[in-house]
Amino acid sequence: MTTIKDGVHDHIEIQGITAELLDTPLIQRLRRVTQLGTVHLVYPAASHTRFEHSIGVYYLMNRALSHLGLDGPQAERLRAAAVLHDVGHSPYSHNLEPVIHRHTDKYHDDVINLLIDSVVGDTLSEHGHDPERIAALIRGDGKYGQLISGELDVDRMDYLVRDAHHTGVPYGTIDHERLIRALTFVDGELALAAGNVQTAESLLLARALMNPTVYRHHVARISKTMLRRAAERLIIVDSVAITASQLRRMDDHDLYAALRSTEQTSQIASRLDTRNLYKRAVWAERDAVPESIIDADYDTIRSFERTVADRIGLDPEEVIIDVPERPSMTESSSRVVVSGEVRRLADQSPLVSALRTAQKQQWRLGVYVPAVETDRAGTTAVETMGLDISGALVSDIQQETVTATLDEFND
């Protein structure tokens, strides 16, 4: 047995097959993959990794298994899935996932090939576990897969607390022990036992507050899209023999080394190194953006970027249009037992409606360019995409000027 001192859960005892899995290259690589990608450019202490998160998920899975009374081979498979659930992440975690998926058709939870073609697969087989069953649990398949990937999964419980701890932002703090003790299965569906509507709401509220404050902070979004642009460029440069599949298996350090040493990506790498980031030329509210723009595919958005760049004389790589997905709130589908029957949280809690409204109001389309070009790029982007100018902030520089004028007036 191995004991690890964790910054969030204190001492964690690792035993059984998990102790062997931890020492495999597949999991050790996660020491070099940051949990929050470029968020450290906003919160400097947010440098924690997928490795420590995986150990935290293992710990919470153990707590859940104990509460649910699960043991034997099924429990051992769930422990293995917990510690392996993030091995499919590319460098900088979710930051590059759209790039990887566009070129490989794989998301981070598509891990079957990784588990089979590695020491991990051999280790699992030696202990009598089928790697395909472990991969299915990681995808969230079946009754017990919900504990790994679902609205009430232990993955979510750990990353909210861990991300809050490392960023210093208190909103992600949740009572994960209460959540785990409330878990139950009803007709094969994971739910929270009676009397726990507020417990479910706490998870929903934590995620809703962490989104704009940490995960979708505008600086994090700008740096993330710059990193994506550079990674995309790295894949398509003829002189650089890096495929998307190879990129997927790099760690953060590998990626940065490649970006710095490649002529076509070195400028963005330098900007990220020195935090000399692009600025917002447009920051448009949901109602300011035509439906056709919100639903546009990657190639259409790239076409808009090239048009804006051409009109103001910029390199197309220096114009980034960032269109988030439509607002969603998966946690609202959490199931709770009320008056003896299982109900969706969205049908039981008035808080869900309020948070959905807030989420819609927080949605923003961004256009990012080098700071000296924000004014021209903002005006051109608004015209090119047909945005409602009354609902769009055009240029950080213009906004700063307005703010400074108001401050001077107030003084």
Chart the SSEs and their pairings.
Blueprint: E1 2-6, E2 10-14, H1 17-22, H2 25-28, H3 50-68, H4 72-84, H5 97-104, H6 112-116, H7 119-126, H8 131-139, H9 142-145, H10 154-167, H11 176-182, E3 183-186, E4 189-192, H12 197-215, H13 218-236, H14 244-248, H15 252-261, H16 266-274, E5 279-285, H17 291-294, H18 298-312, E6 320-322, E7 335-338, E8 341-344, H19 345-348, H20 350-362, E9 364-369, H21 374-385, E10 392-394, H22 396-410
Antiparallel strand pairs: 1-2, 3-4, 5-9, 5-10, 6-9, 7-8
Give structural attributes.
11% strand; 54% helix; 22 helices; disordered C terminus; four-stranded antiparallel β-sheet
Q: What features would you describe in this structure?
A:
The structure is a single chain. This protein is an alpha+beta fold and 411 residues long. It has three domains: 2-97 and 106-168, Hypothetical protein af1432, CATH 1.10.3210.10; 217-276, no CATH class; 278-326 and 363-411, Alpha-Beta Plaits, CATH 3.30.70. The chain is 54% helix and 11% strand. The chain has 22 helices and ten strands. The strands form four sheets. It has a four-stranded antiparallel beta sheet, with helices on both faces. It starts with a strand and ends with a helix. Residues 397-411 have low confidence and may be disordered.
